[in-house]
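Hi U.,

Before I forget, here's the chain from the pilot set. I'm dumping it here mostly so it's searchable later in email.
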Amino acid sequence: MKIIDGKAIADQIKSEIAEEVNQMVISGGKRPHLAAILVGHDGGSETYVANKVKACEAVGFKSTLIRYENEVTETELLDKVIELNVDSDVDGFIVQLPLPEHISEQKIIESIDYRKDVDGFHPVNVGRMSIGLPCFVSATPAGILELLKRYHIETAGKHCVVLGRSNIVGKPIATLMMQKANPGDCTVTVCHSRTQDIKKQCRQADIIIAALGVPGFLKKEMVKEGVVVIDVGTTRIPSDKTKSGFKLKGDVEFDEVAPLCSCITPVPGGVGPMTIVSLMKNTLLAGKKMIY
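Structure:
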């Protein structure tokens, strides 16, 4: 059983990006610039955005953080998005989700210029991804593909079961795993809360990508020997063993499933670090004006 070290791979990719940025600047090019809009004080969002800003520093990007209180109006937010769309110094930007209930997330996403949509949530990027055209692929699915590629995990002709059908992970990773590509070329089954006999589906899988947000959902009786398991879950659960009073738990019951796997990602330290580094890769693409 091999543990897939997302942190090590992410560090490797950060070095590669930093080297490329260095070359761009030396040859007179512009330093890529990522902006992030953060609304309110959600603990998870605060942490994510702080990590994104830190990653920008590590790879040599310029970064700007734009903060609003929860009371910000939808119109104010839309005005800021339009301003960033036309700001030639900003190569890519993100609006950290979730947003307060009085703001339509879909309206905000659709107002972002898809050429600056480094989160890969705009319908143009989602549509282009689904037919295999150049686009910004959303960060978590892109990170999963990178792990499979760099660990030389064979995917062609394999049966991949995706647990979860969210727009952010489940749907896009299912689409990517069936594309004519490497990684890809899988036969894909998507399971969700209405799927009957999930255990049977999982036991047939060569690769399981768990993205349900249900801690410890995947148990040992649900997997076959030699399976590859990618755990996308990151649920905060109370813990008296940590200073913060909580720990991150994945969708996989790691201790009992891991011995049966050929490869498995841990939580934390698996998919998580790859998500942020994939956003950096998208920002580099935006800086090079590769998506148009």
